[in-house]
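Dear H.,

Thanks for agreeing to be a second pair of eyes. The structure we're designing against is below in token form, covering all 341 positions.
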């Protein structure tokens, strides 16, 4: 596959920000004086072949677009790819060299910003290491993936679609839209007795829709109407849902169809692997919550919400307490991380 100039420009328009350095050699590059040089400042090696390979791996793993095209690069495209990275790296190292030569990196402001960045990177590294350790603790029984699939397919959205679901479940229904409560009652009484609902709607000059089989995922249906139809327990049945002052939906639910799922043993291996990753993610989340709860008790973690309320009030003094939007008590915290694939 040919790698276009436009695509290369898209991939490398932004700085790499993947410098692998320390503070040796006065430029902060971490590679000064090492091995055969990929990038040199005079006779000084700034980035050697080993460090360049590490950067390549980091770029590929961090960029989904690169991951997609990298395996199909021609020799020419690969050389261009490497040269683009080297050019970007050389620009960044030039900036670092100048910042150090001008003693800007020694200023209190620079050092403070550097310390903040290092702390953030250390937190990120700690989270990654923590997650990797938890992933190592995940164990699966021989039949557990299949047992998980048989249970989860009925309740989890991931499996409520092909290739897992081969026939969607739902309630077959028709609806007619009218503008008054009295008209809705009149149409409802007629619906119970007629088989051809479209013919009835045409005769009454009303809007009719054959919804087919309604499921929780069916789009373009008022949620109250959808919930009422899906909540039906006897068939056929009719009902009315008021969706606005001058809009009433009269429905007839004909029958219910149960979903049909593919047999686990007949699933493609790639599809099985996806189901396995869903299971591993579920086990990871459970393990993560349990471990964090354990550690919170061990280290007696406390969050001073009163102080945070005071801080918010000080920063938004014009907002009255009664106007503040309530936060759900069961609101989930932002995820800390995800398990490795």
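And this is the sequence the design step returned. I haven't edited it by hand at all.
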């Amino acid at each position: 596959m040919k790698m276009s100039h436009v695509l290369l420009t898209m991939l490398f328009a932004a700085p790499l920000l993947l410098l692998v350095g320390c503070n040796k050699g006065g430029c902060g590059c971490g590679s000064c004086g090492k091995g055969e040089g990929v990038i040199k400042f005079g006779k000084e090696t700034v980035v050697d072949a080993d460090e360049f390979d590490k950067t390549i791996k980091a770029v590929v793993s961090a960029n989904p677009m690169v991951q997609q095209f990298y395996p199909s690069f021609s020799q020419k495209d690969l050389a261009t790819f490497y040269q683009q990275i080297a050019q970007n790296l050389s620009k960044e190292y030039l900036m670092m060299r100048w910042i150090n030569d001008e003693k800007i990196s020694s200023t209190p402001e620079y050092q403070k910003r550097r310390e903040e960045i290092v702390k953030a990177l250390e937190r990120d590294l700690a989270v990654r290491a923590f997650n990797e350790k938890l992933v190592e603790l995940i164990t699966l029984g021989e039949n557990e993936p299949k047992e998980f699939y048989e249970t989860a397919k009925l309740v989890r959205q991931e499996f409520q679609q092909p290739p897992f679901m081969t026939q969607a479940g739902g309630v077959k229904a028709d609806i007619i839209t009218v503008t008054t409560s009295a008209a809705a009652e009149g149409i409802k009484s007629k619906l119970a007795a007629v088989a051809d609902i479209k013919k009835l709607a045409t005769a009454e000059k009303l809007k009719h829709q054959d919804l087919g089989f309604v499921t929780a995922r069916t789009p373009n249906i008022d949620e109250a109407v959808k919930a009422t139809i899906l909540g039906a327990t006897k068939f056929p049945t009719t009902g009315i849902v008021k969706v606005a002052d001058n809009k009433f939906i009269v429905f007839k639910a004909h029958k219910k169809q149960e979903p049909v799922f593919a047999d686990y043993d007949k699933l493609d291996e790639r599809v099985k692997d996806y189901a396995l990753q869903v299971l591993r993610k579920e086990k990871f989340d459970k393990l993560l919550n349990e471990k964090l709860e354990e550690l919170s008790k061990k280290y007696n973690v406390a969050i001073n919400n009163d102080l945070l309320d005071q801080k918010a009030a000080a920063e938004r003094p014009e907002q009255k307490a009664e106007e503040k939007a309530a936060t759900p008590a069961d609101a989930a915290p932002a995820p800390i991380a995800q398990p490795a694939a």
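Two observations from my side: The chain has eleven helices and eight strands. The radius of gyration is 31 Å.

Warmly,
E.
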